[in-house]
Amino acid sequence: MSDQPPKINGRVAAGGPIRASAAAASAVPIGELHPREIADALWLAAHHPEIAARTDDQDVLTEHTAAAGRPRQTPAPAPAEQKAPPPRFPRRPADQDPLAPHSDRKTHPDDGRPGHAGGDRRPTEPDPLPLIPLTDDLTDLTDLGDPGSLHPIRALHPQHGPPLPQLTRALRPLRRPAPTSRAPQVDPDATAERLAVDPGLPPAMRPGPGPRWHAVLLLDVAPRMAVWRDTTEHAARLFRQYGGFGDFRLLHLDTSRPDSASVHWPGTAHPVSPKRLLDPGGRTLVLVLTDGLAPAWQSGAVQAHLASWGRHQPTAVLSVVPQHLWYRTALHRLERVRLRASGDRPGPGSWEYAEPTGRTPAHRADTVVPVLELSEEWLLPWTTFLTGTGPRWTEVAALLLPRTSRRPAASVRQPREKSAAERVALFRVWASADTFQLATRLATAPLDLPVMTALQRRTLPRTGPEHLAEFLMSDLVTSDPADDGYFSFHPGVREEVLAASSRHATELATKVVAELLAPHSAAAREMLAYLDGATASKPKVTEEDRHFREIECVVLRSLSGAHARRARLIGQLIRAHEESTQQMSESTRGERPIAPHTESYGIVTEPNTSEAPVLAERLGHADTGTSPGDATMVTAYPDTGSRQEITLSRPAPLSTVRPLVWGNMPPRNLVFTGREDLLQRLERELRGGPTAVLPHALHGLGGVGKSQLAQEYVYRQAGQYDIVWWIPAERPTQIAQALVELAHRLHLPVSSEAITAVPAVLEALRTGNPYSKWLLVFDNAESPEAVQEFFPSSSENSSGGSIIITSRNPQWNTLARPLEVDVFERAESMQLLQRRNPDLSDEEADQLAHVLGDLPLAVEQASAWRAETGMPAAEYLRLFAEKRAELMTVSRPTHYEQTVATAWNVSLDHLASKNPAALQLLQICAYFAPEPIARSLFSGAPVQPIAPDLDRALTDPLRLARAIREINRYSLAKIDHRNNSIQMHRLVQAVLIARMTEEQQQRMRHGAHLLLAANAPRDPRDPDHWSRFGDLYPHVVESGAIDSEVGNVRQLVINTADYLYYWGDHESAREFGQKAYERWREQYGESDQQTLLLCRSLWYVLWRMGRYGEAAALSQRMLAAVQALGSDAEEELLSTMGSVAVDRRSHGDFRGALDIAREVHERAVRAYGEEDPLTLDHTHNLAVALRACGHYREALDLDEETWRRNVVIYGEEAYDTLLSEMGLALDRREAGDYALGARMFEEIVDKYRNVFGEMNPHTLRALARLAVSRRKAGDHQAAYDLSLQASKALTDRYGERSPDSLVASLSLSIDLRQLNNLDDALKLGERTRDLYAEVFGAQHPDSVAADIDLAITLRLVNQVEDARALNENALERAVRALGEDHPTVLVCAANLASDRYAQGDAAGALELDQRTLERIKTTLGDSHPTAFALMNNIASDLRALRRTEEAEAMHLAAVQGLGDRLGAAHPACTDAEAWRRSNCDADPMP
């Protein structure tokens, strides 16, 4: 690579260490100095000539040398070879260059570092520190002889700040002024004209000269940056005091968390959105002052912000760490690049690799962020480059950040933990000699920053902050997240470091540490006395000084010899202190120390099971420890009294290997009994495909243990699978919710929306990526049709996948292999009864099983009841007979129903007398779905009373806990402690409802509704609330909440419908909303307030689904209902009229929609004022209607004001604000400012990604519009990439007939044509045109736009006649729908003229082009790019007609206009220069 420096405005740019060159390059003409600077300079020259006369090369220690009686040494002139121009940016030797291989980074004493004789000064070294000779014992300076024979080292006297004075010189180029409205001045000519008209008019003002640049300095405040606190504070002070910026802001950048990098104001926790730093005008510098070590740098979180800032404005990283250490930081992936620019635009310009050999070609979309040392030599070339006006270039070290960078994925394979010896050995390899010596000194001290700094100054004064930073960035230490200035060694490292130190150095450092800490620590004072040889008292260890004593023990042990005895004593005292502290802690908590006991019993409990603890023999095998069910083993001590010997069979072994992905599994039933034959049959059936576990034909209502059988199989066979996922399958929405959770567990790149996550997870299972062995359990599925769409399709890679379905529906023969489950065998019933009731005889157990009909659910409940109450079997049989007789007098249920109801009524009657609140809690739960009910649902007291006992329990956590314990004791419901939820079997629910009176049923159902409403989230659009809504949804449906008359319950219904839509389950949102709307319309009428709200929500869902006919009919019905309400419903009327306007626009009546939108807006302004949020909504809708009609300037004014007001009301990243900002970007783009529109959309898309996620539909729509903007800005490849991404995602989500999918497909076809892929463009264009006609109709303006774009492609593939016919037909339809002056009509006319030209009719083309140009100038303006495109076509027409002179003049004007508006490199401009005709695309307005 050439060593010639870059040229900037014809001058050699400073870039190296030679100060004379830097000063020359930084010389500022008098005209560019600020008046204040000139005044300061004159004052200094008059009052302090000694300061003004001092040169940069003067030695600042003249006083010291004069006092010593020695003449001041004059520096020798530099050799001739050193006067060569400096390199383009500071270089390092090969062993210090981060871009060169760094196999050996060790620094040797004679390696040329500052402070060693014979070594060249490093390029990045600031001006020399004061130099004084020094000996070990600080001998008097006068006795040292000739200073010329001494080696220069750093001064010992305190430094008042880092040596950064030259930094301000590097900023001087930024002082060049620019016209700004902040400094207006009188315009003499314009003022004279005004005064000639009316002498009373005020003077005319024009922008005056002012600062051209603003700046934001971001200080990294991660813990390790504390080392550089003096440097960063001094740099911040210099930037703040520098007067060349129009606006300067100092912010803190918190990079301590790997998942994010946050910006906030200094001294506060108030966050600042990183997007607020963006400046579309490119006049704000973003400078990040950092060491590049924190987790957010390592994860790429900071780089994502840098890429965003760097795309809009000059951005640079200022590293406090010297360049030779960059390879140890996250700044190691640097490239040498050459930046090029011309003119005074602040944009990024272009770049190329400085050393392209062996490189892949530079990617235009990558963002270049320079990385500079914090010095004049590095900063000056960059600032000079930024402020240049002519063609120029410079070279920098830079990060190359992709436009859509992704953070590096966490490694699945964790690296092996290094030993302490390995850590120290590696550190010695790469660390400098001084840094390693510093580490040996710091190993004697607590790693508190003030202590480390003071110890460094006392023991190794020649080292600086870069050496301390080198130590702290090593693998020897870790930072304390709770304290920015505290660090600690990894285990064993302190000992290893001390072992590498000399005894003398360790003793000296230890004494210094004791001296530093003695004023505040009695332990340090006692240690200092010991080191001084005084008779020290016996050391004591307290909690306050334990850490110091631990360090003392390690240090003394390393010194050994006479210190070994004291080290052993301190070690014993530390251990004794720890034991004492532990015992005191256990005593305080009331815990009993566990002692071994040969007769202890093992109690296996599972925190999420409904059963009471099961006594078992002492368990010590793998199958009784932590299992896939998360069972835990707790040791209990035997009672002092005698206890009957109990022997139980051990549960079946669990799989000892847990699947990699395991979720939603119910707790294992620890008293599962029998069913061995069914489990074996289930295993065999699964080998042949999906298997449905069904009840026997005689017991179709369930309760025979289908789910229990599936659970037991899963727990036994879990080790065979990589994925096991339990899916509640009663409703499609619940299935989708479970699959969304699975998608997140698989780390698939999808959002939380069902519409994208479900297809993604099914595809991952189908292809076996990332896991091919999986098991899905669809529990309690309603029908094959309801779940079939959620089955992964077969694939060669998914042969290891299995599906189990449990269902009460027997019709599964066509989809799954049925496995019928019957009641227990009598032996199984007896075994289950005796497991919990070992005192039952075989005869009693047989009698109980007989009356219970061997029904597993009834047997389990009766077993738990008797185990808890101890009731004799005969008494239970008598009660059972009485309850059965009572039941028979009320109704004649089936034998099965009778048995279940009788068994439960025995327990429920007892519960009613013992704890009425527990019974009422069960009665409430009877109206919820047979799904887990979060206990938190009962923590929010309803606004109305339900039942006295229950009301007290709901407001008293202790009463509520007691009620739940009672329910658990009698096995009346399953209590899952892991999920903190309650679940009831549907048969138990039926029994509870049947035994209540009608008044009780109404009261408890009403109570269920109140509890749901009291605990529901309020914002269904917030993704953070979707999980909670998903939990509540089945209970909202099952409880019949749509029948409630309570206002907040009805609001819950509306919010639930909205949640289903925003979550992505659009069909369920439509079905649920439609059902509720029909019910409310019939019950309350169409004019009811909440009926209207639900109707509007349903209308929006229908409209978004493309069901425009149904949506229009609904909006007309809403309008009639609201109009009937009269003047009291003005707000509802305006909103409904807005919906009608949207329907008009959807049907292609753009002008009719605009008329309605104008009326609505005017009425809203009169009624509520311009700044009311409701008015802002209508203002936004009016802007949309104006844009659809081609009135871009008027829409721009409205959108700009709306956006500004929304920012004030909602904030920058609120949904309403983003909508208005997107409208503003569209207005800018369609008004002809393509580059600005593209930059605005870049920022908007980033905001959508941050707020909604990558694959959210709002983000995808913004991405599609960004693609159009990139195309119009001339970046066709980037536009194609974005269109392809948006089109695929939207089509996968909504299908190809969705309006959003059609817009993205049309844009993609245009991008293909722009890239000259005409065959694919033609195919996609024809398909998209046909779909537009099917969905919207051939007369719709958007269908016309699709025809216009297709016609261009037809002409380019030489189907000119077809193109002309299509354009003529499209023009006729466009005029009829939009009028003659609409932009779409004008674009169509321009393309039709090109068709005529292609057919040889140049005269006809000229006549049409000239007529169209006049209308375009009237509609869009004289300087719109489309006007210049028409001028280019007219030039071609004239040239074909041999009117050469006119053609040349028109062509020159067109090329100049396109160049000014779009840039000389824009494809439209280069085509015009080559006399190629311009094609005008038609993009439907969203």
From TrEMBL:
**Start-end of Basic and acidic residues biased regions:** 102-125
Q: Which domain of life is it from?
A: Bacteria
- Name of one Pfam family that matches: TPR_12
Example GO molecular function term?
ADP binding
Start-end of Pro residues biased regions: 74-88
Quote the InterPro entries the UniProt record gives: DUF7779, NB-ARC, NLR-like, P-loop_NTPase, SAV_2336-like_N, TPR-like_helical_dom_sf
**Which parts of the sequence are annotated with region: Disordered?**
52-167
Annotated Low complexity bias = 132-147
- Domain NB-ARC, which positions? 697-835
Q: Specify the signal sequence span.
A: none
Ranges for domain DUF7779: 913-1000
- By what name is this protein known? Cytochrome c
Q: Which organism is it from?
A: Streptomyces alanosinicus
